[in-house]
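Reopening this ticket.

The earlier resolution said the output was attached, but the attachment link was broken on my side. Pasting everything inline this time so it's all in one place.
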Amino acid sequence: MEHDDLPRPKGDAASKLSSEDLSPYSQDELTVRIALLEAEIARVSAHRDKAAAHMAAADALFGKKNS
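Inline output:
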């Protein structure tokens, strides 16, 4: 089993965020939180795309790895 195939730990940041009670937050605080989360999504997407490009370059150079 590859490392990427392992399940995420239950205490990871996304799990903690998704279970947090949002009722104490004001509308302004929620707007700020949404902006921060959207920025994090963009950061993670860019990292994923960079990793995919790196893997594609490696596959092109060395051939696709057979599982």
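Reporter confirms the inline version is readable. The two ends are 10 Å apart (CA to CA). Helices lie at 13-19, 27-62.
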